[in-house]
């Protein structure tokens, strides 16, 4: 006797609190409240009815979308969107195809973040299926920074190309923008297409997520040792370390070795990256889906856009206030960079420094033998402060002084912190969150 309409009424308060409430958990709620087992299908139907009752009808939401987007741009000039529809001239109607949106505060604030973005997509769970695409950066403290969104029918060469074209047109024109992704065929295809100049160097540098690469290797060959070796090779900062580990991969599995050999090294191995990744080896977009945007995927489309607006407003407000507190306390560098810097400083205490030229600011740094470290120490590196180089490559790859650079600075009384990239400063953190989300205009005004 329990129909989906009645069940929607019972479950509405739970879904209002959390639109991401899973079906299996709602079934437990129904069992506890009604003392009756309810089918998975009926709970799914009830959830859609409850969502529609709270946030509006799914179908009507598509009709409302153009007006809402126009109002959003009116309230926040600089907010960008692109709505694609398929016209049906015979019936005098149009059908939704895809939509892209990026809020002005995110666009303006991104100028103070590293030029690195991660892209990914996830399925929608509402009445109408599709995919939510997201581009996400990281702030000065290495925390997620949602940048741009899109809803498309599915992941394909066409939709990924469209999404990245929108980012390049509406969000950022920075050179050497590093785009980190999984190895979806559609994504690989657009970066292979030399006709897309905006996705080719020097405008864009494409890199693979190491977590996805290792997962692909493990799925294909089901070898934990092999997976760990791939991770070690990809994370190596020096070519000698990469080559040694790559040889081990060949000994463990020749097919996997050939598979990786066919992948351009700069796309997956840090030592060949030239510093475009800023040391970021994985995408953490899932953190954004599961945290900041939790619940958005089950909402009607206009409500989804509105949901991202208010969630990002709260996120920006919280981060802005925290960055102001750090500025007022006199803190210069974000904790992420300071932690790396201090670990390197501890190691620097055991290095031996020899000055080669005071005028050229070139030095030789020798490390002590240390069987407790990965490389066992006992190495020689060349440091040049004028050229901002060290043969260990960590300074170039992470944009934070390595232990060898810090050892030179300690020996000759230079301020080593001056060599930390400004993108890690508390000032950059504040500036990335300084833009404010304005109040939306009344829909009747």
UniProtKB/TrEMBL annotation:
InterPro entries listed in its UniProt record: MULE_transposase_dom, Znf_PMZ, Znf_SWIM
Domain SWIM-type as annotated: residue spans: 381-413
Keyword RNA-binding: no
GO MF, one annotated term: zinc ion binding
Keywords for this protein: Metal-binding, Zinc, Zinc-finger
Protein name: SWIM-type domain-containing protein
Organism in which the protein naturally occurs: Lithocarpus litseifolius
